[in-house]
Amino acid sequence: MVIENKNIILGICGCIAAYKSCDIIRQLVKLKANVECILTKSGSQFITLFTLQTLSKNKVYQDMFEIPDEWEIKHISLAKKADVIVIVPATADIIARLAYGRADDLLSCTVLASKADILICPAMNTNMFNHQATQTNIKTLKDYGYNFIMPEKGELACGDYGDGRLAPVEVVISSIINLK
Ligand SMILES: Cc1cc2nc3c(=O)[nH]c(=O)nc-3n(C[C@H](O)[C@H](O)[C@H](O)COP(=O)(O)O)c2cc1C
Question: Does some domain include residue 144?
Answer without folding.
Answer: yes
